[in-house]
Amino acid sequence: MTPRLAVLAAAACLASCSGPLVRPPAVAPAVEKRDALLILPGFGYGRAGGKSFKALAEMAARDGIDVYVPPFVTRGGLDDSRAHLETFIREERLDRYERLHVFAFLAGGWTLNPLLDRLELPNLSTIVYDRSPYQERAPKVAVTKVPVGAWLRFGKTIFDVARTPYPPLSSRQPNVALIVETAPTPFIVSHAKAAEALGPFDFSCNGLGERYDDCGYVALHHTDLYARFLTVWPEIRAFIQTGHFTDGANRTPPSDVALTKGHR
Predict the structure, then answer these.
(1) Which of 30, 171, 226, 238 has its CA 20 to 30 A from that of 103?
(2) Can you give the residue ranges of every domain in the chain?
(3) What is the fold of 3-25+33-244?
(4) Residue 188 near residue 145 (C-beta atoms within 8 A)
């Protein structure tokens, strides 16, 4: 493969974060008190995710929840992405809701948590974080193995995430849950040795460096979670309503997490 084709192939393997903006339906069903759900996508956000979030917006509106999905991740770095997210929250007047809930994909968490150190959101009730010991290594693997493709696709932001350890939430205000992906994306599988070279995978809830009130596992990889978001919505809705996932949620971490046979 020529260098140019290698760059293009790498860029194709890394999912785009250029999915559509999603807002509540223009005419929402009448509900006395409405909540807001802010979904913060990351590098995996594309058309499939946009389609699932639009379907969710229609469904959640009937339950009195207005869904907002800003494509806030920019090429200018994490600070620039935080500025875009802060502007979105202000312009959409999310502080007018009695309760604000957040679902943060990986880059969403890297963006949101430091922002909350200086941004007051008195109505912030819930944060559900998407976590993945596999996929959280993807930025570092990408900037090491395919730096040109990573830069062309995501700019400075993926390099910022690659060199920034996960920043845990400092606020004790919201209820917090973790949804942990247990499958690797094709990108991670194709760079399995590089991913494993970064150290052992820890899928325990306590090993993810974030406080939580509940924690569950889904047998999906990062790309699939965008496209099949409606499959995890019942657990998210339950946590919003009760502070816990359902009794049927999988709370058992995977036992075999090696990517290559030599590490099994």
Answers:
(1) 30
(2) 3-25+33-244
(3) Rossmann fold (3.40.50)
(4) no
